[in-house]
């Protein structure tokens, strides 16, 4: 891989995603020595910019010493062009040819990172296909890949339309659909945790597990991003993708091997067993002004009177032998009381307790905290130390900071970009996975779009609408007794 002549082309180079995520992740990989020595980056966008204009835009987001930053920026050039037509892409091809011409016979890599709105994907991909795929190299191991970001459509049909258009241009092996949750440390741990621990495997089943919660909370609202958000709402923004990926990895069967396709085969099988989410199993919310936090409708970029949900709780069902009857609860919201992404697997109580009814309120739980402060802990029932015979809930606790100290935990984008460069699609979303995820949410989304359900108001900074807690309790979740 060290011989690779790598060009990373960031399209939409002056946008938010490129500045805040793509370039900083590339920089950290560069600084830590993970990228090939022979590396060049090209920023591409419509605005008229000089190389140093682009460098200025990016610089403030890079973390590291000034010398390394400069070395990195020196490798970035800017090419201006439109997202439709051929001209811009011809200019891009010229720059690529120029960069590659001295390395005939060497393996060439071209990574196109589309930090762009999906509405332009078809024309951009067509432009790339027509103009930028003529790599003048016979070098063995040469490749061209495209990284694309959600939203991949608005529902099953629009997502399939987009997938068809891209599929006519590039085969699945060249398309890397990012879901950055798959790059988070605890998500990467999932297959190890689930399939390397013998005490977990046999109990990972409806006979022992009462309910599972996947919870995403953010303390801030849309903050000027409301115009974008309002088109989608919380279900399309995080549930259909990030939380569904979590569910798939948690609930799927053991893959035959760790190969990308074996893993994704199992995810697809699981996702296809998801029953479409019912309106009755859903609570929607929208935040209102509270304290010094403005309400969703106060965001000037949000259309007046919008009914877009900024909060949702959905109880999902998996129709297979392992999970029949177990509610899988997803909860996600903006402008809530805290920042947390957490998975809570709650076990059933013992079938014949000799410790009285209180045991019903003391449930074993396996908790995986994705952020902040990664942790895996297990709630267990033990005797309270002392003379009395009293049961309490206590914790077996693996907090990453405490246990692994300053061990570096890579940012999700760093890991995924490196995977794309290495050609590993394991943590990217395959087309059939995407289809199954949309199928589970599309009827609900259409019902909401048709006005069949309205969001309940909740004050910014609260836990969301109380109806959500009622739905979660109805699904069988028991709040552990105080201890
Ligand atoms: C994005 C959503 O995909 O994920 C945002 O569009 C959300 O609305 C973000 O804030 C959350 O990502 P993270 O990594 O900060 O949890």
From TrEMBL:
<dbReference type="InterPro" id="IPR019796">
    <property type="entry name" value="G6P_DH_AS"/>
</dbReference>
<dbReference type="GO" id="GO:0006006">
    <property type="term" value="P:glucose metabolic process"/>
</dbReference>
<feature type="domain" description="Glucose-6-phosphate dehydrogenase NAD-binding">
    <location>
        <begin position="9"/>
        <end position="189"/>
    </location>
</feature>
<keyword id="KW-0313">Glucose metabolism</keyword>
<keyword id="KW-0560">Oxidoreductase</keyword>
<keyword id="KW-0119">Carbohydrate metabolism</keyword>
<dbReference type="InterPro" id="IPR001282">
    <property type="entry name" value="G6P_DH"/>
</dbReference>
<comment type="pathway">
    <text>Carbohydrate degradation; pentose phosphate pathway; D-ribulose 5-phosphate from D-glucose 6-phosphate (oxidative stage): step 1/3.</text>
</comment>
<dbReference type="Pfam" id="PF00479">
    <property type="entry name" value="G6PD_N"/>
</dbReference>
<dbReference type="InterPro" id="IPR022675">
    <property type="entry name" value="G6P_DH_C"/>
</dbReference>
<dbReference type="GO" id="GO:0050661">
    <property type="term" value="F:NADP binding"/>
</dbReference>
<protein>
    <recommendedName>
        <fullName>Glucose-6-phosphate 1-dehydrogenase</fullName>
        <ecNumber>1.1.1.49</ecNumber>
    </recommendedName>
</protein>
<comment type="similarity">
    <text>Belongs to the glucose-6-phosphate dehydrogenase family.</text>
</comment>
<dbReference type="GO" id="GO:0009051">
    <property type="term" value="P:pentose-phosphate shunt, oxidative branch"/>
</dbReference>
<dbReference type="InterPro" id="IPR036291">
    <property type="entry name" value="NAD(P)-bd_dom_sf"/>
</dbReference>
<dbReference type="GO" id="GO:0004345">
    <property type="term" value="F:glucose-6-phosphate dehydrogenase activity"/>
</dbReference>
<dbReference type="GO" id="GO:0005829">
    <property type="term" value="C:cytosol"/>
</dbReference>
<keyword id="KW-0521">NADP</keyword>
<dbReference type="InterPro" id="IPR022674">
    <property type="entry name" value="G6P_DH_NAD-bd"/>
</dbReference>
<comment type="function">
    <text>Catalyzes the rate-limiting step of the oxidative pentose-phosphate pathway, which represents a route for the dissimilation of carbohydrates besides glycolysis.</text>
</comment>
<dbReference type="Pfam" id="PF02781">
    <property type="entry name" value="G6PD_C"/>
</dbReference>
<feature type="domain" description="Glucose-6-phosphate dehydrogenase C-terminal">
    <location>
        <begin position="191"/>
        <end position="476"/>
    </location>
</feature>
């Amino acid at each position: 891989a060290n011989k690779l002549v790598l060009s990373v082309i960031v399209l939409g180079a002056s946008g938010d995603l490129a500045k805040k995520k793509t370039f900083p992740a590339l920089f950290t990989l560069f600084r830590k020595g993970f990228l090939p020595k022979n590396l060049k980056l090209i920023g591409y966008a419509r605005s008229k910019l000089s190389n140093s204009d682009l460098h200025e835009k990016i610089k403030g987001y890079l973390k590291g010493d000034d010398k390394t930053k400069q070395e990195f920026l020196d490798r970035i050039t800017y090419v201006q062009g439109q997202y439709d037509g051929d001209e811009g892409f011809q200019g891009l091809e010229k720059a690529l040819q120029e960069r590659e011409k001295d390395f005939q016979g060497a393996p060439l890599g071209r990574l196109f990172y589309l930090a762009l709105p999906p509405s332009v994907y078809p024309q951009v991909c067509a432009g790339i296909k027509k103009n930028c795929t003529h790599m003048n190299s016979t070098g063995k191991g040469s490749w061209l890949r495209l990284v694309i970001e959600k939203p991949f459509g608005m529902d099953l049909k629009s997502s399939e339309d987009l997938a068809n258009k891209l599929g006519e241009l590039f085969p699945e092996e060249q398309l890397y659909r990012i879901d950055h949750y798959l790059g988070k440390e605890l998500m990467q741990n999932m297959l190890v945790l689930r399939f390397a621990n013998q005490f977990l495997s046999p109990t990972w089943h409806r006979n022992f597990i009462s309910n599972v919660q996947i919870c995403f909370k953010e303390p801030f609202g849309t903050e000027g991003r409301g115009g974008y958000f309002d088109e989608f709402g919380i279900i399309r923004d995080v549930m259909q993708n990030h939380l569904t990926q979590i569910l798939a990895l948690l609930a799927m069967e053991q893959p035959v091997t760790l190969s990308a396709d074996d893993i994704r085969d199992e995810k697809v099988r699981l996702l296809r067993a998801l029953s479409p989410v019912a309106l009755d199993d859903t609570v929607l919310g929208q935040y209102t002004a509270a304290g010094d936090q403005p309400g969703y409708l106060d965001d000037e970029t949000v259309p007046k009177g919008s009914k877009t949900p900024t909060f949702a709780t959905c109880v999902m069902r998996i129709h297979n032998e392992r999970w029949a009857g177990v509610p899988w609860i997803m909860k996600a919201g903006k402008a809530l009381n805290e920042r947390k992404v957490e998975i809570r697997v709650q076990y059933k109580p013992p079938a014949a307790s000799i410790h009285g009814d209180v045991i019903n309120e003391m449930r074993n739980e396996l908790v995986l905290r994705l952020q902040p402060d990664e942790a895996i802990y297990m709630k267990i029932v033990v005797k309270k130390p002392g003379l009395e015979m009293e049961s309490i809930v206590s914790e077996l606790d693996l907090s990453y900071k405490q246990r692994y100290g300053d061990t570096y935990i890579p940012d999700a984008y760093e890991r995924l970009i490196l995977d794309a460069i290495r050609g590993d699609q394991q943590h990217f979303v395959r087309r059939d996975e995407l289809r199954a995820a949309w199928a589970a949410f599309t009827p609900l989304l259409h019902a909401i779009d048709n006005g069949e359900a309205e969001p309940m108001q909740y004050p910014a900074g609260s836990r969301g609408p109380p109806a959500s807690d009622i739905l979660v309790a109805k699904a069988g979740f028991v709040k552990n007794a105080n201890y």
